[in-house]
Specification:
Layout lengths: L1 H17 L4 H12 L3 H9 L9 H12 L3 H4 L2 E12 L3 E10 L3 E9 L6 E8 L2 H17 L1
Antiparallel strand pairs: 1-2, 2-3, 3-4
Helix pairs in contact: 2-3, 3-4
């Protein structure tokens, strides 16, 4: 009985050691936390990056910007939808999401990098330019179709 228990323990341990966060799982964790505590979600996301000490001011600015997305300013948060998913080789990915609020949509863009064996946040930003870019794309599409 003891050898069987030891084997199962080693098997489960090996599986847990192989399990790692992927960009998609990091984003899922982020949005689950974001729905409750947005600033903490941003802070925890950056904790995946061992190099964040060099960008403390930029991270504080992002947290400050996210803290302003209050129900009084943008309304209720309703969730998110993917916009773009890009991958460069096997070690760098970009994920862009439409973030839904009563007043307006926002865009959250995540970039993840895996230098060796662990994914971490490389960059995060959010903006409100989504509607302008869609309008510009529509103009460009119209111009191309009329030529």
């Amino acid at each position: 009985m003891k050898p069987l228990f030891a084997f199962l323990f080693l098997l489960v341990g090996a599986h847990l050691a192989q399990a790692q966060d992927t960009p998609d799982s990091l984003i899922d964790k982020f949005f689950k936390e974001y729905a409750k505590t947005p600033v903490q979600a941003v802070e925890n996301l950056y904790m995946t990056n061992p190099w964040t000490g060099r960008n403390k001011d930029a991270i504080e600015n992002l947290k400050s910007g996210v803290s302003k997305l209050t129900p009084e300013f943008v309304g209720k948060f309703y969730g998110y939808e993917p916009i773009v998913q890009k991958q460069v080789a096997t070690s760098f990915v970009l994920r862009s999401y439409l973030v839904k609020y009563d007043r307006q949509p926002l865009r959250f863009t995540f970039q993840f990098y895996k230098a060796n064996d662990k994914w971490f946040l490389y960059a995060f930003k959010f903006d409100t330019n989504l509607d302008d870019e869609v309008e510009e794309a529509a103009k460009l599409n119209y111009q191309l179709s009329t030529n």
